[in-house]
Design brief:
This protein is α+β, with helices and mostly antiparallel strands and 220 residues long. 30% of the residues lie in helices and 15% in strands. Strands 3-2-7 form a 3-stranded antiparallel beta sheet, with helices on one face. Strands 1-4 form a two-stranded antiparallel ribbon. The longest helix has 47 residues. 9% of the residues are buried.
Length: 220
């Protein structure tokens, strides 16, 4: 009896479990179907109605800062004064020939000196009186030069005064022997006489005369 009750209780439990599972399956199917239908409805509604998202209200701009906190305006330098006395710009002409310079002013040349008047007489030089060969003879030969047999030619120039006498004598060419040169001027001073020189007016004037003396040892 007890075994039979226990068997019946087990069958009941099994049946209850199967019924519960069937309920669960049926409920799940119903819920799944309803849910699928509901989703399709929602899609239809959302596709028909365009729901716009509300934009948040714009925030008003911040109030301006108080005047006391504003930065000072920048300092602007005053413009430079405008000068109206500036020189006019120089305009250069292109391809313009340079100005021709003015000819120099004529220079007054000094007048040439007046030519001296022509002389009334032809000036003349001093002329010897007599033979100049007599101014020195073999007797005037210096004794030492004679002993040493020295010979030579001495050139001289004399200055003649207005009276015709020799006032000066200079050796212009030496004979090589001082004693012969000294004998030359000494004898010419003593013996030479001249007709004095004359100027353009014919008046006596100082003049010069040049010559030479050849000293030769005399032969016996």
């Amino acid at each position: 009896m007890a075994y039979a009750d226990q068997q019946m209780s087990g069958n009941k439990i099994t049946a209850l479990i199967i019924v519960a599972i069937l309920h669960v399956v049926v409920g799940y199917a119903l819920v799944s179907g309803l849910a699928y239908s509901a989703i399709q409805k929602v899609k239809e509604v959302t596709s028909a109605v365009n729901i716009e998202e509300e934009k948040p209200p714009e925030e008003p701009p911040p109030p301006p800062p108080p005047k006391d906190d504003l930065p000072p305006p920048p300092i602007v330098a005053p413009p430079p004064p405008i000068s109206f006395n500036a020189p006019a710009p120089q305009v250069q002409t292109v391809n313009q020939a340079p100005p021709i310079p003015a000819p120099p002013a004529p220079v007054a040349l000094p007048a040439p000196p007046a030519a001296p008047p022509a002389p009334r007489f032809q000036p003349k030089g001093a002329a010897p009186k007599g033979n100049p060969g007599n101014w020195a003879t073999s007797n005037d030969y210096p004794s030492r030069a004679l002993r040493e047999e020295r010979e030579g030619t001495t050139g001289f120039r004399v200055t003649v005064g207005t009276d015709g006498k020799v006032t000066d004598c200079q050796i212009t060419r030496s004979s090589g022997s001082p004693d012969l040169d000294e004998a030359t001027c000494a004898n010419v001073r003593r013996r030479a006489r001249f007709t004095p020189a004359t100027d353009g007016e014919g008046n006596p004037a100082t003049g010069t005369y040049s010559n030479s003396i050849r000293w030769v040892i005399p032969k016996d």
